[in-house]
Design a protein that fits this description.
By secondary structure, this protein is an alpha+beta fold. The chain has one domain. Helix content is 64%, strand content 13%. The protein has six helices and four strands. The protein has a two-stranded antiparallel sheet. The chain starts with a helix and ends with a helix.
Length: 254
């Protein structure tokens, strides 16, 4: 595959990563905002809440008198960290868009030769050197930058995934206690119900407190899963993009 096609792929991948990062931010923010008041029960009285906020839907914890959220820093991180990815990758997408679709950089030229053979005209086309493929060092630097962003995306994807499943596991205990489950009922709760079903219980059965009344329901599981899947897709595409940059560097020997 020539450089022109590789840069087209980079443009497409970066557009998807940018959109995926924005989706991760929006979905994480929606879930966080919906639950932040109800789950924030780790610091009382009211004046002390800003010192120890537990209003994050991720890494929720069952405790003796109820259920609380995880540290608010987790929600800050998974909500705002993807914005840096979105901004930087949008810039790179614009750069490759200009190179590929406007300036046609990296596109192979073809030398056309006309030959006469026994009165017939034979036309042959041979590819020549690519036009302005760029400096190899620049492509290697970009490869390193995308490797960094791959790791960066991987970290918040792991935080999102772990936080989602930790809350799910802890809320199973809450459901079991609330329903006073035993025997096969516990087997169903701990062994058969998916995390999506557990979050459905949480959406509809988690009590509203006097300090905060939720007038609307959201599908917490779908919201968080969309954020998680977008983050992991962004990671995979970023990883592939780093390989593409390395391949472009190999094409340009100078």
């Amino acid at each position: 595959m020539d450089q022109y096609k590789l840069e087209k792929l980079l443009f497409i991948f970066f557009v998807f990563i940018t959109c995926g990062s924005v989706i991760t931010t929006i979905c994480s923010g929606i879930a966080w905002n919906h639950w932040k008041e109800v789950l924030d029960k780790c610091a009382f009285p009211e004046w002390a809440r800003h010192h120890d906020n537990c209003g994050c839907i991720l890494f929720g914890k069952k405790f003796d008198s109820g259920f609380r959220g995880g540290a608010i820093s987790n929600c800050y991180y998974v909500t705002f960290a993807p914005l840096l990815t979105a901004v930087f990758l949008a810039v790179l997408a614009g750069y490759h868009c200009v190179r590929v679709f406007i300036n046609k950089k990296g596109k192979p030229n073809h030398n056309v030769m006309v030959e006469r053979s026994f009165g017939d005209v034979v036309i042959t086309a041979t590819p020549s050197v690519q036009e302005d493929g760029g400096n190899r060092k620049v492509w290697l630097i970009l490869c390193g930058v995308i490797v960094f962003f791959s790791i960066y995306i991987l970290v918040y994807a792991i935080v999102l995934s772990n936080g989602y499943y930790k809350t799910c596991d802890q809320y199973r205990i809450e459901i079991s206690n609330d329903l006073k489950a035993f025997g096969n009922q516990q087997a169903v709760i701990y062994g058969r119900l998916s995390c999506s079903a557990i979050y459905d219980f949480m959406d509809y059965l988690f009590p509203n407190y006097d300090v905060y009344s939720r007038s609307q329901f959201i599908n917490t599981s779908i919201t968080l899963l969309l954020a998680i899947q977008s983050a992991w897709l962004s990671f995979i595409l970023a990883l592939i993009s780093s390989v593409i940059y390395f391949r472009i560097a190999q094409i340009n020997k100078i």
